Amino acid sequence: MIDKKIKLNRDCMGCHGCLNICPENCISMEEDKEGFLYPKVDYGICINCNHCINVCPIINKTLVENNPSAYACINNNEEIRLASSSGGIFTLVAEYVIDKGGIVFGACFNNRFELEHDYVKTRKELSKLRGSKYLQSKVGNSYNKAKYFLDSGTKVLFTGTPCQIEGFKAFLGRKKYDNLITIDIICHGVPSPKVWRKYVEFRERKADSLTQRISFRLKNEGWKRYSVSFSFKNNTEYRRNLNEDLYMKAFLKDVCLRPSCYDCEFKTLNRQSDITLADFWGIGNILPEMDDDKGTSLVFINSEKGRKIFNSISGDMKFKEVDIYEAVKYNSAAIKSVQKNPNREKFFDDLYSLEFDELVKKYCADSLKVRIKNKAKAILIGILSKIGMLGVAKKIVGRN
Ligand SMILES: Cc1cc2nc3c(=O)[nH]c(=O)nc-3n(C[C@H](O)[C@H](O)[C@H](O)COP(=O)(O)OP(=O)(O)OC[C@H]3O[C@@H](n4cnc5c(N)ncnc54)[C@H](O)[C@@H]3O)c2cc1C
Asked: CA 323 to CA 36: how far, in whole Å?
């Protein structure tokens, strides 16, 4: 069965397709020592139907070729855009679906700040899904729930990482539903939920309080220099720039991603979703007039359905078509997996014996060159801010 058929730790991306398809409910997703979920079959119940093997998108690769077009996009609603990770285009599509009586699936925190897939039915609830959360979301039985809504004729927007979308499509048996819209993201890779749990505990110990709210992408210092923020129940706040936050350091140093992310099958321009969303890094070089450092989305339209929705929401955004190859030059995560950090195994070995700050200091330290560069940047920003030239400062720290 599935847990014997694929080399779990390297190949399985944890999409939950096998769990959702099993007619006997004999598959559970169990956490390994790194904190990633893998299928486990209860052979006392298994009827050898092979559905789990037939649904696995890694065993049955079927990437259909397509010819996407790419756009730089900005949601006209400034409040939504600032609350979103890039240009706020997810919310525009989600609102379009909800206004038509549909529902939206995506990744949201539960009350213990674990990340799970769930669905919402109203515009108000969309805030739960809005914003990137940099860890792997647990799909649970969302594919089954979404199928139930699809079969009853409800419009469904299903969003997630490319592997989650692929898992969902495989679960649906590649059946074409007119009422299904899918969005994937350009995905750097997903960190371990266990590492995230350890970080939340660390921050709560430091704050001596439980967490109330978390944002990975606060734009107070600009979109390109975003901050991670924790608001605690004792009314204190922790906030650090992406280069200084310990968790973001571990994420961006590629030390705690799921093993399959280092050799991702779905980093391609042949996306299986209707729409792909990403940060438009490099926008300052390609279309400087669309870069005000509040967030610009890179959007791929991958299907006719995606095109129809894009046309329907186009009145609510600023957009310009761009050359897709030019755009991905600044966003290699679209087409290329990151390299595994050579310290990855040691990082996980020490996960429980070291405090989070010691762990990151030991395995994710910047090189001397990067430290000097960051220090010089910080000094320059300080000086420019003092003399009222923050705009120039932002250009200096930008990724362009
Ligand atoms: C783990 C991760 C890695 C990413 N890596 C890159 C990258 O390398 N380059 C790049 O350009 N963009 C990357 N993105 C995408 C980018 O951060 C934005 O999510 C995207 O541009 C959409 O932004 P938005 O402003 O339109 O909407 P937002 O409101 O910011 O996005 C919300 C959408 O993201 C989904 N989402 C949030 N967290 C997760 C998660 N953990 N798993 C699955 N879905 C999630 C929600 O379900 C919702 O559909 C990444 C996102 C995630 C979650």
From this structure: 37
Ligand 1 atom 37: residue of nearest CA = 132
Q: Tell me: pLDDT of 363 over 90.
A: yes
N- to C-terminal Cα distance for the chain?
Answer: 48
Q: Report CA Rg, the chain.
A: 21
**Calpha distance 24→341 (Å, rounded):** 39
- Backbone dihedral angles phi then psi of residue 112, each to the nearest 5 degrees: -105, 10
Q: Is residue 60 part of a domain?
A: no
Cα separation of 329 and 335, whole Å?
10
Q: Helical H runs in the chain?
A: 2-5, 8-11, 17-21, 51-55, 78-83, 89-99, 142-151, 162-171, 193-207, 246-252, 283-286, 304-313, 324-328, 344-349, 356-363, 368-386, 390-397
| 1-10 confidence digits (pLDDT tens) | 667 666 667 7
Tens of pLDDT along 141-159?
999 999 999 999 999 999 9
Distance 207 CA to ligand 1 centre (A): 28
Q: What is the pLDDT of residues 293-352, one digit of tens each?
A: 999 999 999 999 999 999 999 999 999 999 999 999 999 999 999 999 999 999 999 998
Which CATH number characterizes residue 28's domain? 3.30.70.20
pLDDT the model gives residue 366: 75
Name the residue at shortest CA distance from atom 21 of ligand 1: 278
How far, in Å, is the centroid of ligand 1 from the Cα of 127?
14
Range of the domain at 10: 2-55
Crossing angle of helices 89-99 and 304-313, in 10° steps, is 90
- Residues 92 and 180 placed together within one structural domain of the fold: yes
Residue nearest to atom 34 of ligand 1 (CA): 132
Task: Please tell me whether residues 174 and 102 are part of one structural domain.
Answer: yes
Kindly state whether residue 258 falls inside one of the protein's structural domains.
Answer: yes
